[in-house]
Amino acid sequence: MRRRKLTIEQYINEIKSGNRFALSQAITLAESRLFEDQSIAKEIIGKLLATTGNSIRIGITGVPGVGKSTFIDQFGILLIKSGFKVAVLSVDPSSQQSKGSILGDKTRMNQLSLHPEAYIRPTATGSHLGGVAQQTREAILLCEAAGYNVIIVETVGVGQSETIVRHMTDFFLLLMLGGAGDELQGMKRGIMEMADALAINKADGNNRDEALKAKRNYEQALHLFPPTKGRLNPKVFTCSALENQGLSEIWTFIRRFIDHGKETKYFRLHRQQQQQYWLNELINRQLTQDFFQQEAIRKMLPQIQQDVMDSKLTPREGAERLLKAYRN
């Protein structure tokens, strides 16, 4: 049975009071493809906007098997013990059937999933990554309005999603393994420059020496990247989520990173750049959607696509013809 929707004012009051059901339902409205639901979600978020922005937004990524769920479980409990309320969200462009990794991860976050000061929310999957990202951004705002002052955004580590998460968080943590082999190196090089810190996880037992070796190697690699004005230089850690070691040092660095960024104005500038990025992204998405939905374009597109494939038209000529029809 579908649960009754609240009024706009009820949503606002209940979310502000920390009602998890109202929060979940508002996020569901934001994820919906129905115009009516999206309109309600926009109004709710618009009226709550003044109560948002006061959290620390942390992005966490890493390849499957790096121990993200165990790390987030232990890390979240550490934050709660420090007096914070923690929300965990995901950016996951995986298939509709699999429902994304965080649904499975939630069952492995044994402590966090049961704690009253934590909220774990899987993002709707099976849609375009840009759409998933927009839903996650709106979920961040709703969680902040509900009083969650640390938002952890997890990505499954599949390429573009790391860039998306970097554009919606204040601190980006890359979880890695020591001695994992050369097959991961391409992915590491691609996102290392985005990371504000690297953590070599599973640094316990027989893995400890490999983790320390990897730490030294990554510290040397980080020196090759030019520093960013106002931003604290990235740091490499070793940790063991399983043994709950090294997590407090990572949290201490995150707090120092945020405080330093606020002192140098990097924090505010970074968030402003993110807002500008998402403004441009949403304009591009809306224009693309409108373009392909226009009747004249739908009629012309198949023939122009065929002519381009047959080299009767260059891609530039094809695009110009379509854009001319769109403008007229």
What do these coordinates show?
The chain has 328 residues and is an alpha/beta fold. The protein has 13 helices and seven strands. It is 54% helix and 11% strand. The protein has a seven-stranded parallel sheet with strand order 3-2-4-1-5-6-7, sandwiched between helices. Strand 2, helix 5 and strand 3 form a beta-alpha-beta unit. Helix 1 crosses helix 3.
Summarize the structure.
The chain is built from 13 helices and 7 strands. With 328 residues, the protein is α/β, with parallel strands linked by helices.
For the sheet with most strands, the description reads: 7 strands, parallel
Our count of helices gives 13
Radius of gyration: 22 Å
H/E element string?
Answer: HHHEHEHEHEHEHEHEHHHH
Main sheet: strand order: 3-2-4-1-5-6-7
How many beta-strand segments? Answer: 7
Helix/sheet category: alpha/beta
Beta-strand percent range: 5-15%
Percent helix, as a range, is: 40-55%
N-to-C span:
48 Å
Labels describing this entry:
328 residues; globular; 7-stranded parallel sheet; 13 helices
List the helices and strands and how they pair.
Elements: H1 8-16, H2 20-31, H3 35-48, E1 56-61, H4 68-81, E2 86-91, H5 101-108, E3 118-120, H6 129-145, E4 150-155, H7 160-166, E5 171-177, H8 185-192, E6 197-201, H9 208-222, E7 235-238, H10 247-264, H11 266-293, H12 295-309, H13 315-327
Parallel strand pairs: 1-4, 1-5, 2-3, 2-4, 5-6, 6-7
